[in-house]
Design a protein that fits this description.
- The structure is a single chain.
- By secondary structure, this protein is α/β, with parallel strands linked by helices.
- It has a single domain, classed as Aminopeptidase.
- It is built from 11 helices and 11 strands.
- The strands form 2 sheets. Strands 1, 2, 3, 4, 5, 6, 9, 10 and 11 form a 9-stranded mixed beta sheet that branches.
- Strand 2 and strand 3 form a beta hairpin.
- The chain is globular.
């Protein structure tokens, strides 16, 4: 790429960030520097690594990762092992696990369920106790009775988001220069049962919600064979213009070759259909990034790891990593868009969250 094209891209990025900040008359964000170390961290994200993780997470051995199930527990242990290998600090009540219990339908043996949580501590004394969340759900639908292929492998939904959380965590943890804010990497149980894990976290946060500046939830980022046509180099954000987060991702996309856009229907319609909703209800600017909203084998047994576009997923994950780094290094936090009536309830929740007496923050 020519120097002129890089310069033009950086200029467009800074314009987008300045426009986002100007919605609340805030000063423009400081220039973002694409350093050699940042580029090395982004290049740490690899299609081969993603394929390796997903071929296990979405294998028949995990039996569809139903909530609760043996397969879900195996997935949790695998994710925790990857967080440990990346050097993330454990952040749960039991190592990397935030534990609770759920009662399966028809059962009497509430059983254990676990969110998996690791944190990359920030380096800035003034910002290290504020947090950017990167999340996905690691459960799926389990299996069905019958013969033949009976396992809902859930490779794209949401094995792809799960392994992307792992890969982004490993990439950003590889940097010697830590981000200014802390970054929390978390995978939720029970999304397919009604956002159980994320709603539990919203009611029992490990990190103060009034110090959580954003949640980036990753869902269905692996398949490019959308029912609307191929989605190579594209990613859509739910609630794109509900907050300033969408513009940060658009800016990061310009630098990584990903077109982050508002889908004319699904961006708004799907906002409430993934784990970001549980955090948004608490007032945290929270959105889901998605490549294909609907695709062949959606919620079917054919959603297998062989059908994922790993090269494209790696590229999308580099966009995610860069956007997260931008927010983690920016002293200004993203805000809900007061001009969008669809964001009004979340803006009010944010105001309520930040108007609590100091004694209630701890």
């Amino acid at each position: 790429m020519s120097v002129k094209r890089i310069t033009n891209r950086l200029a467009r990025v800074m314009l987008l960030l300045a426009l986002a900040a100007s919605t609340l008359s805030a000063p423009p964000a400081p220039p973002f520097r694409m350093t050699i170390e940042v580029r090395a961290a982004l290049n740490h994200i690899s299609a081969d690594s993603l394929r390796g993780h997903l071929s296990f997470i979405a294998s028949d051995a995990l039996e569809g990762r139903g909530t609760p199930s043996r397969g879900l527990d195996l997935a949790a242990e695998y994710i925790a092992a990857q967080f440990r290998g990346a050097g993330l600090e454990p952040a749960g009540d039991d190592g990397y696990f935030q534990t609770t219990s759920v009662t399966p339908r028809g059962a009497d043996k509430p059983v254990r369920a676990r969110n998996v949580v690791g944190v990359l501590r920030g380096a800035d004394p003034a910002l290290k106790d504020t947090y950017v969340l990167v999340t996905a759900h690691y459960d799926h639908l389990g299996s069905k009775p019958g013969e033949g292929d009976t396992i809902y492998n859930g490779a794209n939904d949401d094995g792809s988001g799960t392994v992307s959380v792992i890969e982004v965590a490993s990439a950003l943890a590889s940097m010697k220069q830590r981000p200014r804010r802390s970054i929390v990497f978390m995978t939720f149980f029970g999304e397919e049962r009604g956002l159980l894990g994320s709603r539990y976290y919203g009611q029992h946060p490990i990190f103060p919600l009034d110090r959580t500046v954003a949640d980036i939830n990753l869902e269905q980022v692996g398949r490019t064979d959308s029912s609307e046509g191929p989605q190579v180099n594209n990613a859509s954000m739910t609630g794109f213009d509900f907050s300033e987060v969408g513009q940060v991702f658009k800016a990061a996309g310009l630098l990584t070759g990903i077109n982050v856009y508002k889908h004319p229907h699904n961006s708004d319609a799907f906002f409430s259909r993934s784990d970001n909703q549980a955090l948004a209800d608490q007032g945290v600017p929270a959105h889901t990034l998605c490549v294909a909203y609907v695709y062949p084998d959606y919620h079917a047994v054919g959603d297998t790891w062989e059908k994922v576009d790993y090269q494209n997923m790696a590229k999308v994950d580099r966009c995610v990593a860069l956007a997260v780094l931008m927010m983690a290094n920016n002293a200004q936090m993203p805000h809900w868009n007061a001009a969008n009536p669809k964001a009004a309830r979340y803006l009010q929740a944010w105001k309520t969250l930040h108007e609590k007496p100091v004694a209630e923050h701890h």
